[in-house]
Amino acid sequence: MSKVAAAVKAALAYLSWPLVFFSGLTGAYFAFANEQPLAAFSAVYAAAVILLFLLERIIPYEQRWLEADGETANDIAHTVLTKGLVQLAALSAAIFPMLAAGLLQPLAAMQFRLWPSSWPMILQATLAVIIAEFGLYWAHRIAHERLFFWRFHALHHSVTRLWVINTGRFHVIDSLFKIALSQIPLYLLGAPLQVFWWLGAVTAFIGILTHCNVDMRTGPFDFVFSTPRLHRWHHSKDLREGNTNYGENVVLFDQLFGTYFNPDRPSSTDIGIKGQIAPGFVSQLTQPFTKDGVRQILGLKPKRG
C-alpha cells in the first residue's frame, strides 16, 4: 500500500463516524422541511447506508466479516417486514392523534402536556433522546437479563458478523417492547410530531453506525454515544463483555448504572450466541413461541418424549 493510500485510509478511520452521523442529521434537517418529509428522509438514510457499505470495503474492521453468512435475505426481511413495519406503526400513532387516541385511549386521556414546545428543536430533540434512552436502556438490559425477553432478543445477537445490513435484524416483539418503553413517555408528555421524527433520525443513524464493519476511530465520541467500538463489545460471546454497553443512542445510563465497558484494546470479533437460531425468516419469528425453540435458542438439547 502506498503512503498516500495509507494516509487516506487513516483519515477515513477518524472522519467516517462524524461524517456519516452529522451529515445524516443535516440531511434529516432538510428532509423534514420537505413537502414529503418521510420520503426525503428515506433517501438520506439510503445514502448513508450506501456510504457505509462502501466504507466497509475500503476500511473494514474485520476482513472475514465481508464474507457471506447466508443470512442476508433474512436480515433484510427482518429490517423491512418486522422492525420497519413496527417503526411505521409507532410513527403512525404519532402522526395521527385520532388513531393513537383510538388505540391507546387510556394513554390519550393521560397526556399531561408538559413538553417544552417553546424550546429550540435541537434542545427538544436532545431531551427526547435522553428520555427515550432511559426506556431503551432498560428494555435492552431486561432483554439480556430475563429469559422471557432474551428469547426474542437472541435473534439480533445470533449474527456472527456485523455489517450495515443486519442493523435491523430484530424480532417484532423485541422492537415493540423497546418502542413501548421509549416512546410512550414522550407521548404522555405531549411531545410534538417533529420530536418523534428527530428521535427516529438519531436512532436510525446511530443504528447503522454501531453495526457497520468499518474501522472507525471514535475516540471521545465513545464517552457520549453508542459507537461501533462499544457495540462490538456488546455482541461478544463472552458475557462479561457482552452484558455491557446497553445504550441505543447514548451511553449516559451505562455510565450511571455501571454497565459501560471500554477497555484499552481492540473490541471483540468473537460474536454470536451459544444457542442456535432457526434458518428461515418465518421460523425465526415463530421459534421463541415453542418450548423446543427456546431450548434451541439457549443451546440446550430438546426434551425427549
TrEMBL record:
Keyword annotations: Membrane, Transmembrane, Transmembrane helix
InterPro entries tied to this protein: Fatty_acid_hydroxylase, Sterol_Desaturase_Related
Pfam families, sorted: FA_hydroxylase
UniProt KW Secreted keyword: no
Domain of life: Bacteria
Record PANTHER family: STEROL DESATURASE
Sequence intervals crossing the membrane: 12-32, 38-55, 88-109, 121-139, 186-209
Protein location: Membrane
Full protein name: Sterol desaturase family protein
Predominant location: membrane
Domain Fatty acid hydroxylase: 126-259
